[in-house]
User: Fold this.
Amino acid sequence: MAKTSSVEKNQKRAKLVKRYANKRADLKAIIMDQDRPMDERFRAQLELAALPRNSSKTRVRNRCEVTGRPRAYYRKLKMSRIAMRELGNNGLIPGLVKSSW
Assistant:
């Protein structure tokens, strides 16, 4: 089980990303638009830099929803390999069969 503080910090980051997503997208569109004047693009770049760092999408870490483990994360299942194996052995994931030979 991961530290509760790490999981909560990551959830806080995800909430910030959601809140600032539209503003970041608008500013990035202005910055990338070559037809706009240079000073307007530079001003948009400064505004983007003034936003909280944790509002960036890349700051959010994929974590297992069962244990909070940050590594060995399967995106489709939203859980780590260890949690998946544990639930699979208990028969809680439909279609998952333990292989042995």
In short: The two ends are 31 Å apart (CA to CA). Helices lie at 4-32, 38-50, 81-89.
